[in-house]
Design brief:
Elements (H helix, E strand, L loop, with lengths): L1 H13 L8 E3 L28 H4 L4 E3 L19 H8 L24 H6 L11 E5 L2 E7 L2 E7 L5 H4 L25 E10 L16 H16 L32
Antiparallel strand pairs: 1-2, 3-4, 4-5, 5-6
Length: 263
């Protein structure tokens, strides 16, 4: 990965675009714990790819834009990768389509600040438009982030790193490619009524769920938010009706020139 990013940056500089190019480094999901050392490490965040705890959802958002984004600045606001499309269209001087609903938000205001002293005096002055964020598996609502709170209507079982170690072979490579729980409606999915509640500001690892009986007001507010969200949904056709492991690029050994670096 490091080599690949370096090659891209070297080419941008060679072409003379280095000073006028916004570069974004991110990922589509957190590390997949079932893949041992190959799957990555999600740090303090619980879970990983394929589930809806923050270990599966929170990913890097690293941006470089000389003259616009001050190097080393950290912004803790929550944004979604759905924001990339409307933000980059606006930056390029284009127009957002008005003939369909665009879920992403224009977050250009988060990309730069007036000065370092301004940021220090106003740490929350630039906020995201996302309030709340909804997390789905196919058409099933699994979780909602609302402010600093995260609510889980459904969850998937998660093992510890020590338990996953039993599936790891030599040098930390997995013995097999698999997910602990893959399908949204399978028996491994646990339903929660009332939903599990976590305060991410105090418990970013989602280790301690709050007592629902002590947060009835918050749950009533969440119910209103979810009902409003669902009333505006228009269900579209399914994009994926099945998942074939053989379709994953370069992991089908029968394909010429493609192979995995583990059995």
């Amino acid at each position: 990965m490091s080599w690949g990013v370096g090659e891209i940056m070297t080419e941008i500089k060679r072409l003379g675009f280095d000073k006028n190019t916004l570069v974004l480094f991110s990922s589509d999901n957190g590390g997949q714990l079932e893949l041992c050392n190959e799957g990555g490490d999600n740090g303090i965040f619980r879970g990983g790819k394929g589930n809806f705890f923050d270990g599966g959802l929170r990913v890097p958002g690293i941006l470089r834009w000389p003259g616009h984004i001050r190097p080393g600045r950290i912004n803790t606001q929550v944004i979604s990768q759905m924001d990339i499309f409307p933000t980059f269209v606006q930056l390029a001087g284009g127009n957002i389509p008005h003939d369909r609903v665009i879920d992403g938000q224009d977050v250009r205001h988060l990309l730069s600040l007036q000065s370092s002293s301004y940021e220090a005096k106003n740490p929350t002055s630039k906020s995201s438009n996302h309030e709340p964020l909804f997390f789905y598996c196919n058409d099933k609502l699994f979780a909602v982030r609302y402010g600093n709170f995260k609510f889980h209507y459904r969850s998937m079982p998660i093992k510890s790193k020590f338990e996953y170690a039993a599936t790891c072979g030599e040098a930390g490579f997995p013995n097999d490619y698999y997910f602990e729980c893959l399908f949204c409606g399978s028996r491994c999915v646990l339903k929660h009524d009332p939903p599990l509640i976590y305060n991410l500001a105090a418990d970013p690892s989602e280790a301690y769920s709050l007592d629902a009986q002590l947060h009835q007001g918050l749950l009533q507010e969440l119910k209103r938010v979810v009902e409003d969200h669902e009333s505006n949904l228009v269900k579209g056709p399914a994009l994926f009706t099945s998942l074939a492991i053989s379709s994953i690029p370069c992991c089908d050994k029968s394909s010429p020139g493609c192979s995995c670096n583990y059995p």
